[in-house]
Here is the input.
Amino acid sequence: MKFLLYTTFALATLSLQAQSVKLSEVPGKITGLPVNGSFTGVTGPAATVKTFNTTFGKLLDASMASKPLSTPVGFEVKFFANISKFQPQLGEKRNTGTFNIFLFNYMVNQSGLMKKVDEAPAFIKMYLNATDFFTRTAGFFEAYDERLGIPHPFQSIPVVDSTEDYTTYSFKSYPFNKGYYADFTFRIVRGNNRPVFIPFTRKQYLEYLIAVEKLKIKESEEKTNDFKKELADARKRLAGEKKDDIQKIIRIAIEGNEKAIAREEKWMSDYNDKINGYRAGLADMSAEEENLTAYVDLNRTANARTERLVAPGRREGYALYVVNRHYYDNTQPPMKTQSVMVCYWYHPQFCPDFLKERTRRIFESIDYHRIKESMQ
Here is the structure.
């Protein structure tokens, strides 16, 4: 009996393994193609919709140049394009959009029928005019400090490939906060010759540190004012309170507020000391040194004047960069695409190995020259 059970289990396992192989060889299909040149997700003003549908059509052609995508095997492809609502009243300068390529592998359900999975375990995304790509949209890391209203410097992202059509960056060897695309590469296709990332200078770095300390002082001042109001209220309540047990509770609150005020005042003094140190560091800089790229060594002991900056001209540690706020040409129409950022992703657990490999192949075999031409 045991032998029969083991044999049945083994045959069932082999059947499932064979079935899995067959699923990866099933001819796939493509959905989400435009109808009469229009993608269903593209809505908005007529002129904007027309422009973006034209651009998305060119991105579709560039994508279909990839044979693993144009003739899918073992998975289904769904194209979906959309554009964001343009809000110039909020300071927006251009439309943004996303061209999505969702990849669904096949599975066998409980009834023994083959179907595509409900959620795509892999995708390729093309971000058009990705102003917020390094801030909020893709969730990489904090590249813009909204509290300060200024760029937030970050360590340079390793470049692994560069051609006339694109630059490939990789977070695989990036030792800092990586966000959503932590273990993947992405490519930036530029519509002009301006750099996307620019060096953060030594002067800018110290100015940034000063801004950070000023923000801390402002936040401490607000907290101190709140503690002082609470302290005044507590003292007023204590003066009119007759019950000993209530008086004891109020005195504890008074003591807590007094300690909190002293703590915040001590911190503000420390913040001011740092500001004075950084200002002294700025005063020591020559005009030539001010414009040098800032290199930071995180293993270096912080210096009161220059924090963790290495000596001028040396390159230990990591170079600091910021997103170039002047990359985009604001004289161009808002709907004109000036950059396309291409990323791929797959779920590490739920995406089958064959689809992971095909996703990478699709990403690499897209016609990036056509993407660049789509912005001309």
